[in-house]
Amino acid sequence: MPLAIIGNNFTSEWDARASFMLKSALREALDSAELNEDQIIRVFKDMAGAGDGEGDGMVDFDEFKTVIRAYGLTEISVADLRAVFDLLDVQGEESIKWLDMAISFYPEFKQLQDMRSAEEHDAEASYLRGSVRKSRKGRIGRQKSSNRIKGSKKRGSKCIKRHKSSMGVEDGGLTVEDMERLLGAWSSQNRAMTRLEARVESLDHSAEQMMECMTEEANELKDTLAALCEMSERLQSKFINTLKQQISGLDDENITITSMITKGYGSLMKGLTGTYQTSQRFNSERFQS
């Protein structure tokens, strides 16, 4: 796997972590304004109507930035605000529902959760009403509704029972509206679980790819180092052999010079000895005469 791909994956994950940190910093800034729950919800509602005054429930980046600045949060740069906005804009549509944005910052607010439940209930109810019209049955019987819920996935059964209990619905007293609300809550939880599972799978895949690439690069580096060590040993051996040859040649030359000096000295001494002996004989003969 090319390093560029690993670098891109790493950069993407790093940017996501940085955006989460910026989001936390922005929430801390909102909390520092000491607003109550209603006032904070109003902040996000105002975003949906800031700038263009459409009040369509959608927030674009300019509206987001305008309201954040209006509440005195000037220490966060435009680039950081953009990073947070892009983190929330999971669909890449350059606009976010104000309710989705508010819940992402304050998931613990009960008012926001109630609004989300009502919104999902309306959507599910609209879908079911359309299905009922198409079936031309006019209405759904209580027994048939109960049978449908019993045929639902096992994963949603606990969620349904919990929501039935929270709404005060007794067993056997399920109405069409109750069923719509239960299905809406169950569908919402299933969608959230699906998104979470997809995110975890994506992170696992990226980590696996990164480890494979790092292993390949480590093996290549190991081979390169081995080749360099081998080359270094060859060069070192060659240098030592060359040095030995030069030293050996120098020794031979010294021996030759020494031999020549010794021979010259021997000849000189022999000549001097001969001269001395000749001089002695000459003096002896002259003395005798």
From TrEMBL:
Alphabetical UniProt keywords: Coiled coil
Residue ranges of the region described as Disordered: 134-157
Record flagged with keyword Cytoplasm: no
Gene Ontology MF terms: calcium ion binding
Ranges of residues in domain EF-hand: 39-74
PROSITE patterns (alphabetical): EF_HAND_2
Listed name of the protein: EF-hand domain-containing protein
Organism: Cymbomonas tetramitiformis
